[in-house]
Amino acid sequence: MSPRRPGASALQLPLVAAAEVAAASGSCQRWSGGRHRWRRRRDGGFDHTRYRAVRIDNAVAKRVVEREHYLHTFPAARLSWGLYEGHQLLGVAVFGVPSHPAVVRNVFPDLQPYHESLVLSRFVLVDAVPANGESWFLGQLFAAAAREGLRGVVSFADCDGQP
Questions:
Q1: Which of 87, 103, 108, 130 could make an S-S bridge to 46, C-beta 3.0–4.6 Å?
Q2: Boundaries of every domain in the chain
Q3: pLDDT at 130
């Protein structure tokens, strides 16, 4: 565990297995091939038994991100995970280093930037993944990252509005 600043209090919250909650919206935005699309729950639900989240090498994540993400660039990455169905890589999530430590320090002042706190820099799922796969994948990543010492994640999301 990383050292904390003197005098800083550490609040430890237990991780609990929460029941799956229905999404507030009937659709979710998906980026693939540099373009956004909308996936609807009515198009088919996500069956978590078909998928697994696996830690992957940043070089593997980079190839997917540069091809599929709308920015077509790879960030300063610390941790990368892939979403697999069988042997097929269908998604990538990258936890990275922000441009300045204040990005994470302002949100998590008691955590050591770049070690205990990172940003979710890239997140990509191909269209073949059914709607709501994002939520399951992120849940798996957060639990796995916590086991590796990550205690805080800052995420910036964009949305062009629903169709």
A1: 130
A2: 56-154
A3: 86
